[in-house]
Design a protein that fits this description.
Helix content is 2%, strand content 51%. By secondary structure, it is mostly beta strands.
Length: 246
């Protein structure tokens, strides 16, 4: 359970401020905030940013993207008007996503990045899942490598590294990763264990982070995190959002 320190403001007769640190006592004086912890006196907002009682903590900001709340949407990008990069985690009612701090690029004075959906567990209802066809034959070509042959070509969307699944009750089973594609034959490294049989329907799930499909949902809650020990300013957060058409 999270613990917070709340501060009472006599002017508004309420508790408008929450602090994530837990002091033994605190008091405001001469435009500074002072607190006692473990018998030591600390003056806040001086020295290393984000350091409380000798321990460094990241800064986090949480908000919600909720335009057109009755429509399903795809949250594609995140743009930060800030003087530093941030990392981001995103949670919708249907999916979760991430943006690593290093993925942000400086574009016209803002930090811009595509939202990557989490890869695990695989969600077969999302855009990253694509069907191939029923399997014609399967051949072991050495070790865990198997050649999956189909009646027709497998198309140009499938890529090396995609995860191959086959339809099985009560749920699809993972075969392994694609290692080679040649017209109507797909070679798979079946490290996951089970292999399909002729007649089984085969499909693949692309790496959702690499494909940058974004996050699908009616709303999207995002949390920005920055671990800098120097002052950082964040002025504005923007996202490219468009209606999803199933």
């Amino acid at each position: 359970m999270s613990q917070y320190t709340i501060a009472y403001n006599s002017d508004v007769k309420g508790f408008p401020t929450f602090y994530s640190f837990i002091p033994n006592w605190m008091h405001g004086m001469n435009n500074y905030l002072y607190s006692f912890k473990g018998g030591n006196l600390y003056r806040h907002n001086t020295g290393t940013i984000g350091q409380y009682y000798g321990v460094n903590y990241p800064c986090t900001i949480t908000s919600v993207l909720n335009t057109s709340p009755t429509e399903p949407k795809v949250f594609k990008t995140l743009s930060l008007e800030s003087d530093d990069r941030w990392s981001a985690t995103l949670v919708s009612d249907l999916q979760t996503g991430i943006i690593d701090k290093t993925w942000f690029e400086d574009k016209e004075g803002s930090w811009f990045a595509f939202i990557r959906a989490n890869t695990s567990p695989a969600n077969f209802k999302m855009r990253s899942a694509n069907g191939i066809a029923s399997l014609v034959s399967i051949t072991n070509v050495g070790g865990a490598l198997y050649e999956l042959e189909f009646a027709d070509g497998v198309g140009s969307i499938i890529s090396i590294g995609d995860a191959i699944y086959f339809n099985s009750a009560p749920q699809p089973l993972l075969v392994g990763a694609v290692t080679l594609i040649a017209d109507n034959v797909v070679t798979v490294n079946a490290t996951a264990g089970p292999v399909p049989s002729p007649g089984d329907f085969i499909f693949y799930v692309k790496n959702q982070q690499a494909e940058s499909h974004g996050v699908l949902g009616y709303f999207c809650e995002f949390t920005l995190t920055n671990d800098s020990t120097s002052p950082v300013e964040l002025f504005h957060v923007e996202s490219s959002v468009f209606k999803s058409y199933p």
